[in-house]
Amino acid sequence: MARINENYQKLQAGYLFPEIGRRVKAFQESNPDAPVIRLGIGDVTLPLAPAVVEALHAAADEMGTSEGFRGYGPEAGAEDFLLDAILEHDFASRGVTLERSELFVSDGSKQDSGNIQEIFGQDCSIAVTDPVYPVYVDTNVMAGRTGLADDDGRYGGITYLPANADNGFMPGPPSQRVDLAYLCSPNNPTGAVASRENLTEWVAWARANQAVLIFDAAYDAFIQDPALPRSIYEIEGAKECAIEMRSFSKRAGFTGVRCAYTAVPKALMGSTAAGEAVSLNALWGRRHSTKFNGVPYVIQRAAAAAFSPDGRKQCAEQVAYYMANAAHIREALGAAGFSCFGGEHAPYVWVQTPDGRSSWDCFDHFLQGAHVVCTPGSGFGAAGEGYIRISSFNSRENVQEATHRLTLL
Ligand code: MLT
Prior knowledge:
Blueprint: H1 16-30, E1 37-38, H2 50-63, H3 80-91, E2 103-106, H4 109-115, E3 126-130, H5 134-142, E4 158-162, E5 180-184, H6 196-209, E6 212-216, E7 242-247, E8 260-263, E9 269-271, E10 277-279, H7 280-291, H8 297-305, H9 309-335, E11 340-342, E12 348-352, H10 359-370, E13 372-373, E14 375-376, E15 387-391, H11 396-408
Parallel strand pairs: 1-13, 3-4, 3-5, 5-6, 6-7
Antiparallel strand pairs: 2-8, 7-8, 9-10, 11-12, 12-15, 14-15
Helix pairs in contact: 2-8, 3-8, 4-5, 9-11
């Protein structure tokens, strides 16, 4: 028999969202008439923006002509029209200059944030905030960079930085050196957002420690205050120490369409065991072109359409719709005595469980008592215990009905 990668056996339970799906399915099988409202996984519910749909149609028609047909895309997979739209609207508009060759378009930030660890050494040390998007941790476990999990689910060898109400759910850098630190702002799951001061502290720490920051900005479009940084490259010196990920999933409703990108500046270097500096842009480019043939042309056209004047307006309206849901969740649950955090610059509200319940106990209580699906905070890490995450991705009617039911519990 072929030997397996035994690191997989260190993984705790299943991946969080399939586990929630299994529990909800079991509940629905025994309660087929229960009107379940899903505020668990952060999956968009509004239809694609008209500008995006129009671009999809036009690109499909183009592919059906001999002049417009395309096979494989360019070597790195991304079309210049999309790269230029990203550079203009996501970076130049915020005073950040990057080059086309510093962007890598992919089919999702989940994949990119999971795969990025491949270009780093096996013995690299890792820091994550806790709670954390599980992909960052699980992929390092699979790659063998950790020990076993303890009773709280914390893996040996990972530095966990607790995110709590005392630090505004945005911890600063660790006191010791690590090679890679994963940051996410606006944060999944806590809904907190990093201030300029917080990111400046992280960048200074990374530069002083020759560490690399992996900055996941998949939810940047939900930031309401224009003074808050959307890109880590708005912080001076970040191009020498940070990789950034962005996604069209939440800001343009692409969870089922799939498009994202990762920025790896050319100024960012890693080193060999012998101390020779090596470009991380070159390594990620090598990996990308070896393992990926690019996002389909029609999808790249659709993503670019999200940056057109109509696309920007329509996508901004969708974000505003979800943010109004988040405001409603905070207000309704807050008025009913729940302690709520986040939800002001992010589509997630982080709620302390009532009556000292554990996260999973509260999940079951909400599901059985109110037929509302949330996400247990402990599924994101030990420091998430005692919290649940409520997603604002649903219709206004469902969100209002769900909060109403929860306040009656
Ligand atoms: C979430 O609910 O945390 C996200 O939708 C999961 C994801 O983006 O992979």
